[in-house]
Amino acid sequence: MVIEVRENFEIKNLTTFKIGGKIDKLYLPKNQSEFVQLLTELDDYLVLGNCSNVLISSNGYRGNLILTTQMKEYFINGNFVAASCGVKGPLLSQKACENSLSGFEFMIGFPGTIGGEIYMNASCHGQCISDNLVRCCVFDKEKKEVVYKEKSEMGFGYRTSILQDEKYILLGAEFELKKSTKQEIETLMHRNLESRKGIQPTLKTPNAGSVFKNPPNDSAGRLLEKAGAKDFDMPNVKVWGTHANFIVNKGQATSEDVLELMVKMFTTVRDIYTIELKPEVIFIGDKTEKEEKLCNILYQKSQK
């Protein structure tokens, strides 16, 4: 079994932010067997999907990075859907629609993979990835074996799951969707796309999705807008003009540029409302001294 690997790989163009330096070793498994082989043999690694909710350091990452986007297997039988962690959300949303299955309409506008969406328990428009989930196939990093976890064992909460504790790596997931008509599903998908189009930047404008999580009983976007964040415009990055919880790369941005703007957004809301927003974007890679200081302000726990 020959697993594709690239050394000193420039990750920038594979991220939705179009930011990121060189990765020492990038692995691209094509199926679960290759993925499990890597997880078993490597002692230290990071796993990412479509690189859509992350900020990768412009200084790169001195380590092993596994990307799951080549793992594209999925299976649909009646109401049952099984998918590998690397399957992209919009594709599975479309395939569910073709089979008159409802529950994945919210994913049509998400750039992420199933693995990333379960990791953060992605949700939008009243739907959530965990709503129709039955169980997950995961790799236990401590025991180095494949195990199954029922939905009740996944620790789902707002933007959280047990996958964030870093003991388990998602390999695949099983869902049970609800039957509906293609017309109703397509109408809901179209509404979701139109809603995002009017407010959020598309990937033609490099961004990593929502910057901060919503605080309890409030909206990060509302707080940032009231605090005047829509006017925050720096040389290489700016806050999106129609939704204050998005940062866009104006073309030549570095990870340090993004962190500086995130800190400005964070401190402005904190100073006005005494609310400390928690980042949804995850920082990955080797930090400069300045980035270390910025991350210490933004993140309550250490980032890779």
Strand order of the largest sheet: 6-7-13-11-12
Instruction: Characterize the main sheet.
Output: 5 strands, antiparallel
User: Helix/strand/pairing class, anyone?
Assistant: alpha+beta
N-to-C span: 30 Å
Please compute the radius of gyration using only Cα atoms. 19 Å
What assembly state would you assign to the polypeptide chains in this entry? single chain
Describe the protein:
The protein has 304 residues and is of the alpha+beta class. The protein has helices spanning 32-41, 89-98, 114-119, 182-199, 220-226, 255-273, 289-298; strands at 4-10, 22-28, 46-48, 54-56, 61-67, 74-77, 80-84, 101-102, 123-124, 127-128, 133-140, 145-150, 168-176, 178-179, 237-239, 247-249, 282-284. It has a five-stranded antiparallel sheet with strand order 6-7-13-11-12. β11 (133-140) and β12 (145-150) form a beta hairpin.
Topology at a glance:
Layout: E1 4-10, E2 22-28, H1 32-41, E3 46-48, E4 54-56, E5 61-67, E6 74-77, E7 80-84, H2 89-98, E8 101-102, H3 114-119, E9 123-124, E10 127-128, E11 133-140, E12 145-150, E13 168-176, E14 178-179, H4 182-199, H5 220-226, E15 237-239, E16 247-249, H6 255-273, E17 282-284, H7 289-298
Parallel strand pairs: 2-5, 3-5, 4-17
Antiparallel strand pairs: 1-2, 6-7, 7-13, 8-14, 9-10, 11-12, 11-13, 15-16
